[in-house]
Design brief:
alpha/beta; 8-stranded parallel sheet; two-stranded antiparallel sheet; 30% helix; disordered C terminus
Length: 348
């Protein structure tokens, strides 16, 4: 079956497929098979990150796909991300490690994973406790301007084809754009019918920034820990009813909603059958009506499955800490260990 709007053009000139395979929390021994199954099913977009700690296995799967003639390197769009402990001058070495692990000569897209830097390298374990609260041994601050300059250098030197960000707010994007020579091609954030990101989407559209959606199916087991009390998006009655109407799975409806809404959608799965079903969500043989899209948009509650790094009790300026310990110049002070407020717009 043909797929609709197969790719979006980035400001850098690259073509970004509208559905990609997410590799977060794909277990060792599973992620390689998932990547190979995805490529075999027709995926041409794989979303990776160093902090996922599985890029080496992803790289082995990519080489298998290349060596068997399943796909050529230039036919794939591969993303990786630089994490908080590799900000600033550590960025070039972080990229080299990802390229080595992925066994690639270049990346199609390199993202700044968060607008926060950790002083600690390596990162103290565990990074968060069972409630999603950052480890108090981590010293961090809001930082992205210096790190973006390093990404710009990599882009200008052709080390990466495109550069972008992840988990950035409108305020952070505005400052970054005003003080940079290269506008981010992409901003990757959590997005689904419970968190439609309308304002951020409108802003990014005006700036020609493609918005990517992670956790598009909802995730009670997010990057910040398990949330057994979280609502199950896939079981929402409105979604289930629409899935019955179009004779598709709830997951397929969510992916189609995401793409129809203008997002690049990054569903994650290790199951070959579901991986293929997810890509089939954008076949031209079916679509959601405007009325069905409106019903899904009506589910928005600004609900965030993932907890960011910023306490929700108050807004912090760009020089302040995001976890427990604060470093401003040479000073350090403790912050309260409050659980982040999901509705805080800075908690992305």
């Amino acid at each position: 079956q043909k797929t609709m709007r197969a790719a979006l053009k980035l400001t850098s000139g690259g073509l970004l497929p509208v559905v990609g395979l997410g590799t977060w929390k794909s277990k060792p021994g599973e992620v390689g098979d998932a990547v190979f199954a995805a490529i075999k099913a027709g995926y041409r977009h794989i979303d990776c990150a160093a902090i996922y700690k599985n890029e080496k296995e992803v790289g082995e799967a990519l080489q298998k796909a290349f060596s068997t003639g399943l796909v050529k390197r230039e036919e794939l769009f591969i993303t990786s991300k630089v994490f908080n402990h590799k900000h600033g001058s550590r960025v070039p070495s972080a990229l080299e490690q990802s390229l080595k692990d992925l066994n690639l000569d270049y990346l199609d897209l390199y993202l700044m994973h968060w607008p926060f830097s950790f002083e600690n390298d390596p990162i103290p374990e565990p990074m968060r406790d069972e409630n999603g609260i950052p480890n108090p041994a981590i010293i961090m601050k809001v930082e992205y301007l210096d790190t973006w300059k390093e990404l710009e250098k990599l882009y200008n030197n052709k080390k990466v084809r495109s550069i972008g960000v992840s988990n950035f707010t409108i305020e952070q994007l505005t400052e970054l754009i005003s003080k940079s020579s290269v506008v981010p091609s992409v901003n990757q954030v959590e997005a689904h019918p419970y968190l439609t990101q309308v304002e951020l989407k409108e802003y990014c559209s005006k700036q020609n920034i493609v918005l990517e959606a992670y956790s598009p199916l909802g995730s009670r087991d997010s990057y910040s820990g398990s949330r057994p009390d979280a609502p199950v998006l896939l079981n929402d009655p409105v979604l289930v009813k629409i899935a019955e109407e179009v004779k598709k799975t709830p997951a397929q409806v969510l992916i189609r909603w995401s793409v129809n809404s203008g997002f690049v959608c990054l569903p994650k799965s290790s199951n070959a059958e579901r991986i293929a079903q997810n890509l089939a969500s954008i076949e031209e043989s079916w679509n959601l009506s405007e009325e069905q899209m409106e019903r899904l948009n009506g589910l928005n509650r600004n609900y965030r499955y993932g907890k960011g790094w910023m306490p929700g009790s108050r807004r912090l300026n760009k020089n302040q800490c995001v976890g427990f310990k604060l470093r401003v110049g040479k000073t350090r002070r403790e912050l309260s260990a409050k659980v982040m407020n999901d509705k805080n717009p800075h908690n992305r």
